[in-house]
Amino acid sequence: MNTARQGGPRIELQRSLPSKVAAISPFVDKLMLLIRKCGCVPESESDVEIALREALANAIVHGNHENPGKRVHVRWRCGPSEISIAVKDEGRGFDANKIADPTAPENTGSVHGRGIYLMKALMDEVRFEEGGVVVHMRKSTSQAANDAQRDSRE
To answer: Maximum distance among all alpha carbons in the chain?
Structure first.
């Protein structure tokens, strides 16, 4: 049974938060409560939470430089087989290809690049758009990933 093709219930939400590091935890705590209630990706909720925290921290600190006049915008969509999250800041963006690999020996002492590395490790898809001001992340349920793998073999 391929739940992705059944098109079950979908929930979409858009919110924004101030460019304050202190705003991350209350925002994520509320959103994760909703995600848990919806049961989008029950076996991967902690992965989604960590990736979301990293994306928000990057947007607030590196994108908006904690400017109180700027906001971070979040669009979240939950379907029967996946969750997708887009985080957009109001900064200048960056070149994702120029972020150094934090696991390379010469970078182990660096404090930069770890958030993006974590997002990519925890989510099924991470891509940057609009010059780096938007990060899109997607996580599928294990069942959806298994169905997609099976469909690609048929």
So the answer is: 52
